[in-house]
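Postdoc handover notes: sequence design on the structure in folder B. Input tokens:
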């Protein structure tokens, strides 16, 4: 989406459920604190009233994962993933067995039209199809892979001839014995 599209799209704000009067979330994934009067209490004594100004909250991120904000109520700060706040406000409570999913696989795109409640299995499938699930990378795409698919096929072929033991194959391909055993038994490198 271009910058011009964003400018022309109408931003709609709704109350964050459970934080009505304090925070709102928009359909484009922004969260704001609402201006309000607060009593400042120190050491059990009321000092004075002060105004918290309305402001857009700056989201944080954990290791490049989804964006989150802290919402404060009665002195307690609680972290919330922004995509969940958007879904809660615009779609409703999360149904049992469901979780917040990003349609395009980009965990930082918290626009309402990019979000949905869905099953964990479908969310994992989405991450796999978008290539964003590191846990699903396998074979030569795995971050620690030392072999290629071509080498794995060769290992299986050589082992099937009976001329090579797992130990000989481990030396030949310069990997550990357990890796070769797992390959020939079909425990790893499943096609």
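Designed sequence:
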């Amino acid at each position: 989406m271009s910058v011009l599209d964003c400018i022309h799209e109408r931003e709609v704000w709704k109350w964050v459920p459970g934080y009505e009067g304090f925070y709102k979330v928009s359909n484009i994934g922004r969260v704001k604190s609402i201006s309000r009067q607060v009593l400042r209490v120190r050491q059990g004594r009321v000092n004075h009233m002060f105004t918290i100004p309305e402001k857009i909250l700056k989201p944080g991120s954990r290791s490049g994962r989804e964006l989150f904000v802290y919402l404060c109520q009665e002195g307690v700060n609680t972290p919330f993933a922004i995509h969940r706040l958007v879904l809660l406000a615009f779609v409703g409570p999360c149904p049992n067995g469901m979780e917040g999913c990003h349609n395009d696989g980009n965990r930082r795109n918290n626009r309402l039209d990019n979000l949905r409640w869905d099953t964990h299995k479908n969310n994992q499938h989405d991450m796999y199809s978008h290539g964003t699930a590191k846990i699903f990378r396998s074979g030569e795409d795995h971050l620690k892979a030392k072999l290629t698919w071509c080498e794995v096929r060769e290992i299986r072929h050589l082992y099937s001839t009976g001329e090579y033991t797992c130990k000989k194959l481990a030396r030949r391909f310069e990997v550990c014995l357990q890796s070769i055993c797992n390959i020939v038994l079909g425990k790893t490198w499943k096609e």
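Context for whoever picks this up: The helical segments are 3-8, 82-90, 120-130, 149-161, 166-173, 177-184. Don't rerun without checking with the PI first.
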